[in-house]
Amino acid sequence: MDPDTFLPLAARLNTTAKAYAATEAVAAHLMPFSIEYNGPAPVDTYLVLHKPDEKATEPVDLQADTEAVSAFRGRKIHGTKLQLPKNYTLGFFHMREEEAPVDFNAAPKSTRVKSSVSAVTAPPAPVRGSRFTLDDDEDEEDEEGALDHTGFHDYPSAADEPEETSAGPEPLAWAKHGLHPVASAGNSLWVWGPDGPIDSGDDAYIRTCNEWLTAIAPVLHR
Predict the structure, then answer these.
(1) Is 83 helix (H, G, I), strand (E, B) or coil?
(2) 62 within 8 A of 27, measured Cβ to Cβ
(3) Cβ distance 191 to 82 under 8 Å?
(4) How far from chain centre, in Å, is Cα 189?
(5) Topology given in CATH for the domain delimited by 14-113+154-220
(6) In the structure, what pLDDT confidence band is assigned to residue 195 with cuts at 50, 70 and 90?
(7) H or E stretch including 180?
(8) Residue ranges per domain, the chain?
(9) What is the DSSP string of 48-64?
(10) Would you state the pLDDT for residue 77?
(11) What is the C-alpha to C-alpha distance for residues 112 and 118, in angstroms, rounded to an integer?
(12) pLDDT per residue over 63-112, tens digit each?
């Protein structure tokens, strides 16, 4: 069985420093909930940032301030700015499937048809993770029906197919995922929480980012 069939495809960064610098400059906000929407939104109109000190009248400076409060659907949320290490920048990219160039000069070779298993055991049903909801007063509806994860088809056995076939030149084209820059967010992002000021040492998102940037990334890219 070819492992490439199941392994995730590599993502290729299709950009340059000049192209990335030309993208729209935005502020990045990591919210403590999921939003089932993908598209433009008037964030600046509805996500109004205030200083934690209620007596303060001046607006929040996204560059200088490190703490802020706001509201989402009537609930107060607290934000902490996470500063990235030196030489790191934050950006948003659009990923799409692409086709690599084809090389038809590859030498022909004999290929063996791989036999397929006629009966495949279905994997266990996916486990639904818990998700934070801001609507604490709303009753949760029980979902009826489980995802059908047993949709495997019987494949022909090896006895019905030729053992050896002669193939022509094998093209070297394969599907890849390309990352294209959409917006740049500088060297910081805001991490928001619903239960008061965020503890940078205990918050899972901030701790994971810090561990990746300070411990894992230097080893991968040295």
Answers:
(1) strand
(2) yes
(3) yes
(4) 16
(5) Lipocalin (2.40.128)
(6) confident
(7) strand 175-184
(8) 14-113+154-220
(9) --B-SSTT--SPP-TTT
(10) 93
(11) 18
(12) 899 999 998 888 899 999 999 988 888 999 888 877 655 454 544 444 34
